[in-house]
Prior knowledge:
There is one protein chain. The chain is α/β, with parallel strands linked by helices. It has one domain: Glycoside hydrolase/deacetylase (TIM Barrel), CATH 3.20.20. The protein is built from 8 helices and 9 strands. Strands 1, 2, 3, 4, 5, 8 and 9 form a 7-stranded mixed sheet that branches. The chain has a two-stranded parallel ribbon with strand order 6-7. Helix 2 (54-66) packs parallel to helix 4 (102-114). The longest helix has 23 residues, at 2-24. It starts with a helix and ends in a 21-residue tail after the last helix.
Amino acid sequence: xxxxxxxxxxxxxxxxxxxxxxxxxxxxxxxxxxxxxxxxxxxxxxxxxxxxxxxxxxxxxxxxxxxxxxxxxxxxxxxxxxxxxxxxxxxxxxxxxxxxxxxxxxxxxxxxxxxxxxxxxxxxxxxxxxxxxxxxxxxxxxxxxxxxxxxxxxxxxxxxxxxxxxxxxxxxxxxxxxxxxxxxxxxxxxxxxxxxxxxxxxxxxxxxxxxxxxxxxxxxxxxxxxxxxxxxxxxxxxxxxxxxxxxxxxxxxxxxxxxxxxxxxxxxxxxxxxxxx
Length: 277
């Protein structure tokens, strides 16, 4: 019993030491990417956990601005990586998956209210369906500073598809949007956060520049651009405190090197983890 007690005390000291080290060490440098879905007052029960009500969203944006964050696009990030522009001191990318209509009716006016921009990842075969963005809305959003990306054609986890179907989901979603007047699609979001070692090369072959996962953490120019990390922001159950804790989680994961997807010295991909939601 005494041995067990000593072991527990020792473990507590180790945990406390790690926690104090995390608090004392400087905040990580890099690009913070946040993952949202819907911003609306009204949603059905199935989508509840993916929705952030407008007033909660405003509180989150106000907090981010108070902390000095400035929104950029994925293309801004890649241009800066290639030395073609400079990033602000605390760059932030707001991303929204699936392409819900409230991204146009509710989200866009709030972003404009705060002078922010975002990236919206669209499931192309949902465009024009009830509850989803229309082609006219997408074109208007892009004209008002919103970056449009692909979330595949049918929102099927790519890791569950044979190679030919993976290629179609990646290629056809991009082509369909570009044929319908959307500017070149440079960025991609993996459905359900599922990816494997073959997908970065497939995206590169189809002229994508970046892709986002569902792993929390900060991104630097050393991060594999096809495995960029994001912080998931679900429906807030504990208000702004929960939001701050999720940002803190990204700091912790970055400081501890968890889910760090780095490019090799010659540009090759290092071993990749697979995440399925």
